[in-house]
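Hey, I'm writing a tutorial for new members on how sequence and structure tokens pair up, and I'd like a real worked example in the thread rather than a made-up one. If someone can provide the structure for the chain below, I'll link this post from the tutorial.
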Amino acid sequence: MARNVYGPGVRMGNWNEDVYQEEERLRHFLEKREKGELLIQRNRRLKKHILRPLQLSVSEDGYVHYGDKVILVNPDHVLTEEAGVFMRGDLSLCMSPDEIKAQLNDDLEIPCGVTAVPTIAPIGRNTFTILSNNANSCNVGQVVVYGQDFCLGIPAGLEGKMLYLTSDHRTLLKSSVKSWLQEVTLTDTVTHLNWWQAAFLNPQLRLEYEGFPVRANEKIVIYHRHTNRALAVHRNLSLRYDTGRCRRVLYWLRVMHN
């Protein structure tokens, strides 16, 4: 009785071409590893860049200045009668790049998303620099006052290109995830949509504090100049990323220094 002696190890057909293709794949893999183009290498470089520890600016006079490195924190507050899961603790504003697209290129995708995460440790993804816009021409070290325009920049990507916090009116095709409110992103384009203003927390005293310097570590309201909408955090709307559980932004925040 005849027996079938063929198996997976038996070379049939163009076996010589298969050997060449396997050698070519191995050579291509070694070349990408030497150049650092493997996905795991790109992923490690990305996380090393955005999770690197940084130092915040030290305020000697107790005020916020242009050029200071700060983090924007939504402080913890008393739980109210809100439906759904409510996240407690201090949440800091940080960038949230697309994990898949960020591993394919050294530069982050533009526009880059932002979220709020439960940490106040200054790292590469949540440390912003207070910058002057082209209109007021404020020098580095000048005190920021209530009602004055400023920009919030953060270096991103392996080349350290500056990205600016920006926003615009919501439309049917462009809005924030889950909340369907005005979207906030990071962009490399310098426009008037990157301008923000600080307002005093108490609305009854807001007009009287116009033009006064902003104190460090004080609760304030950050308004978008173009849309007059305040930066906020929706604590009952959660999104999950590879770097952990995040929250999509905007609510009143606190500027923190060392």
